[in-house]
Each structure stands twice: as structure tokens, then as C-alpha cells.
Amino acid sequence: MGRTRKGPLEGVRVIDLSTVIAAPFGATLLADFGADVIKVEMPKKGDPLRNLGPYYNGEGLRWPGLSRNKKSLTLDLHHEEGKEILRKLVKKTDILIENFRTGTLEKWGIGYQDLKKINPDLIMIRVTGYGQTGPYAYKAGFGTPATAFSGFTYLHGYPDRPPISPSFSLTDYVTGIYVAFSAVMALYHRDCHEDGTGQYIDVSLYESMFRMMEFLVADYDVTGNIKERTPGLSGHSAPAGNFLTKDGSWVILVTSSDKTFERLAKAMGREDMLTDERYYTNSERLKRFDEVNGIVADWVKTKTKEELQKLLDEYGVPMSPIYSIKDIFEDPHYKARENIVEVDHPRLGKVKIPGVVPKFSETPGAIRQIAPDLGEHTEDILKNLLELDDETIERLKEKNVI
């Protein structure tokens, strides 16, 4: 099969009825790989994501990277005409992604059961804080509270200080990956199985994080242990953590297996630790976590960052400098992998945004267009996709439906 610039999701149409980060990020991932994503936004207001910081000259800098490859259709679903336009779009759509509070679309007459009557093959992905069922289903849910509810926040920080939340919208982005993952699984089921059909998928913010907590669940169930706050990977492997080099650079080093520790010990010239009963297995080293980390910290202080990286790379020990965004911009590996790309923006000029990942050998994703201005594609979609005439479109404008 020849290489093509068309993504693997070419021909799949998605309605992005969501706002802010988690669900829209999932839609963007689909768009990066060829899906035709129509973002539905409120006229004159748009997605609040457009106005989230950081800013430059009043322009939100998140929007270009998080909303690329989409078309923007303004549509007010509070009007019956707006709902009718959505219903017409649904007839021509594979996937609809929404993140209204549980029950909202049902109140408006455009819930899953309503839309399924129009298009039985429709896949609807519903993103909320706590899911569509359960006693908390109707609660408002944002990423930071959901992170705390998942058990993630409780683990982070120092034992003698308050818990700390991630310094960016981690849960939203993880949930966005689940959105894209759910979409392609549902497409496969619908299109590749004889009994395949449309369905709805219930994605919650807190569950996206809780799914990664299996080490907590089994430990508490079997031993009753409540894991408390610790910095880094304390409690999993030793040595592990942040270390300061001779030239004042912070690096992170982890030995998650005894084989890795063996390589580290040889790099340090401490083969004696491999036969010492206090250190020769991870379970024994964990009993002396601070002591083992201290031995490594003292050794790391004798090396510059470059010397340490070269030596540990030779021995196959996982270590990395702790990068700032400035370091990332200057790193040759990021450049070689095209992790940062430059696009033209109508007001910002040239602006750099994250590249497309993962890398497909035959059907790679691409940035086909920059993030849209509000309502940029409204007339095109209504006229060419839904075949509305100019008079109808003008009337919808006058009534502020679009």
C-alpha cells in the first residue's frame, strides 16, 4: 500500500458539540487523523476555550493547538431551528461528541434516544464529570475536582504538606484520549461486525484517572494499606527520584527492575551493592529507600549533566534531564520527531503548536488547517452539506440561530 497524506479516519464525520478541554481534545485527535470534525459553537460567544489563557495581545494561545483541523459552525440549540439543523447534520454524521451535564440534551429533545431515531448508526460519546449513572451523575464536573475524586490528588505532594493538584489540565487530556479511543472502537464494532450498530459511550473524567490506580485498589483490598502522599515514585522502586548534578541541573532517574539497578551499580562502580543483602533486590532496597537514594544522590553530584547522560546512556540506565519548555524547544530529538510545528495564524502570525502523534507509516495524521475563527464554516456547511438556500441562511442569521 502506498504512502498517502490522507489520515486513517478520512470519510468519518464528527460533530463536536462540546466545550473547553476534555471532549474537544478527543475530537481534535480524531481530526488530526483525517476525520471531518464540525465544531458547533454558540453564536457570538463560541467555546469558552477560545478565551482561556495564556494570552498574547488578548488572543488565547490554547485555541490554535487544541482546535486545529476543525470547522466552526455557529448554532444556538435553544432555538427549535437550531435543533432542527443539528438533526439534519446527525443524519450525515458518524460520531457526535458532547459534554453537557447529564440530562441536558434529553431536556432539549436531542438526547441519544432522540437522535438514534434519526440515525441508528450514530455513535454518541458523552463526557461528564461523574458519568451518566450513579448518585453523582447530575453534579457539575470539572477536571481538577474529578482528579481529586479519582484518588490521584491524594497521592501527590509531601506528607507534611497539603495535597497538590497537577499544574495543568491532566485529567481533561487523559479523558480526551479515552474519547478518541472509544470513538474508533465503536466505529470498528459498527462497521466490521455483522450485527454492528450505533451506540452511546459514557465517559467520565474521574474514571479516566481512576483506571490507572490498580496498584492502589489491590493493595488496599488485600492489605488495607492507604498509600499516603510521597514525592516521585517512592514506594515502588529504589532508587528513584530527582537528583542534582555537579553543574546544578535536575535530572530524574528510575530503576524499576533489578536488572536496571544492576546496570546502574556498574555505572557507579558499586558492584558491591549487587551482592550486599541490603541492596541486591528491589524489595530490600525499598526498605532503605532514603539510604539508597542518598548513595545515588552523592554519586550524581560528582557528574555534570552531560557526563551523567553519556555514562548512563552507555549502560542503559533510564535517566532524563527535567526539561523546561525552553529545553524542549532546543532539543534535537523533539526537532527530529517534528513534535513542535509552526503554523500561520491570522492574528498571531507564525505560531508553534504540538505536532501530530502517534506516527503512522502509511496513513499519517496531518495539520490540514489552523484552528477556525468563530463561525468560519457556517455558511459552507449549511449551503453545501445541508443544502439550505441563501434566503433560509439569511433568515437564520436574523433570528440569531447561527
TrEMBL record:
This is CoA transferase. Signal peptide: none annotated. The keyword Transferase applies. Keywords: Transferase. Pfam families: CoA_transf_3 (PF02515). PANTHER family: SUCCINATE--HYDROXYMETHYLGLUTARATE COA-TRANSFERASE (PTHR48207:SF3). GO terms for molecular function: CoA-transferase activity. The keyword rRNA processing does not apply. Transmembrane segments: none annotated. SUPFAM superfamilies: CoA-transferase family III (CaiB/BaiF). Gene3D superfamilies: Crotonobetainyl-coa:carnitine coa-transferase, domain 1, formyl-coa transferase, domain 3.
